[in-house]
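> forwarded from #structure-qc
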């Protein structure tokens, strides 16, 4: 893959987030399935997660975008494009991006949904950056939003404890200062992982029917052990690859901002990169795996807490269903 040859970089100029109020702690799951707080904490790092009951993913995405727009005085009419990374769209069509566009009153925007599961935000961030780098678009809203509770099987202990609902948004704008913004990315897909992590029905292969409902095919299926093995290697390898491509040493990196699927996968990635725990953003303990929202949520919360600062070199890294995976080297400019 070639390095970029662009006149401008895309930088993040605003952030926003939405966290539902309802908390599901580990104890709650003890009443649903054969599990316990100790197992969940030690095997995943999750203590609690959130559940949204007020509407669909587009509502959470809208609230995250509204937070961004209000805090940074963005005029929705200035937004050129909206990309929503999600695997839990309100409907198959229209795209969640259209629903968010209407709620925001972003009357001059086009947009689309992007389906890359837990790598969704990274894929959307690279796509949005390419729109900015093309010179044709000045303000691109990139949202990671997932209402995982809508596809979680609360009778399956292997998966129900893992996921939570949330949304987070970033605004991309051009900068001529090539030392800031999205510097580089390495993104990959491998469809041979399709059987290990999926939702089998509701699409064109297995349209919804009584049978698909009876067979619980509209829920997340995961072969946890199989995914764990490839995720550990995939996330670590690609994070080291982005470091090597950009001559980054571990001491150059202010934060590794990893997807939050399992604390053990995060720890293994950090270890391979030579990064200490205090330089890894974590929110899996509070929110579980919020799929496309984990990384922008980490960025937003760590920035708002004063931990991520202007000029910080960040490596964003994710692995998810598909398989999809990747890493982005970003220099923070807020
Ligand atoms: N509570 C208690 N026991 C549980 C459990 C739960 N919630 N879920 C599974 N178990 C049991 C299993 O049934 C198994 O029991 P067995 O040995 O009697 O069969 C045992 O715990 C170990 O299961 P295993 O699947 O090996 O656990 P694990 O250590 O791999 O952890 C995951 C399970 C799902 C946490 C882990 O595999 C994982 O994080 N996978 C990757 C997730 C990921 O990255 N996804 C991609 C992005 S979404």
């Amino acid at each position: 893959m070639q390095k970029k040859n662009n006149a401008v970089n895309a930088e993040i100029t605003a952030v926003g987030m939405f966290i539902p109020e309802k908390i599901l702690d580990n104890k709650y799951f003890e009443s649903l399935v054969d599990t316990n707080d100790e197992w969940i904490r030690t095997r995943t790092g999750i203590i609690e997660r959130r559940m949204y009951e007020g509407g669909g993913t587009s509502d959470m995405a809208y609230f995250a975008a509204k937070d961004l727009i209000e805090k940074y005085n963005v005029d929705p009419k200035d937004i050129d494009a909206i990309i929503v990374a999600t695997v839990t769209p309100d409907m198959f069509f229209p795209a969640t991006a259209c629903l968010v566009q209407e709620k925001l009153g972003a009357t001059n925007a086009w947009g689309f949904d992007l389906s890359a599961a837990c790598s969704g935000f990274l894929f959307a961030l690279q796509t949005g950056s390419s729109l900015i780098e093309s010179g044709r678009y000045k303000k691109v809203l990139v949202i990671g939003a997932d209402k995982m509770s809508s596809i979680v099987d609360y009778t399956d202990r292997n998966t129900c404890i893992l996921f939570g609902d949330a949304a987070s948004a970033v605004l991309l704008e051009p900068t001529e200062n090539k030392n800031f913004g999205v510097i580089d990315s390495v993104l990959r897909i491998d469809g041979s992982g399709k059987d290990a992590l999926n939702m089998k029905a509701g699409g064109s292969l297995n349209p919804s029917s009584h049978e698909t409902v009876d067979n619980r095919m509209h829920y997340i299926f995961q072969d946890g052990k199989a995914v764990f093995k490839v995720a550990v290697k995939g996330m670590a390898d690609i994070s080291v690859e982005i470091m090597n491509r950009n001559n980054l040493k571990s001491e150059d990196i202010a934060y590794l901002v990893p997807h939050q699927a399992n604390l053990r996968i995060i720890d293994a990635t950090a270890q391979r990169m030579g990064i200490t725990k205090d330089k890894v953003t974590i929110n899996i303990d509070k929110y579980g795996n919020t799929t496309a929202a984990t990384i922008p949520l980490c960025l937003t919360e760590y920035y708002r807490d004063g931990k991520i600062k202007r000029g910080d070199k960040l490596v964003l890294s994710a692995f998810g269903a598909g398989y999809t995976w990747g890493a982005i080297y970003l220099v923070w400019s807020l």
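QC bot note: Residues 9-179 form a domain with the Peroxisomal Thiolase; Chain A, domain 1 fold (CATH 3.40.47.10). Residues 35, 39-40, 43-44, 118, 157-158, 161, 224-225, 227-228, 231, 261-262, 265, 289, 319-320 surround coenzyme A (CB under 6 Å).
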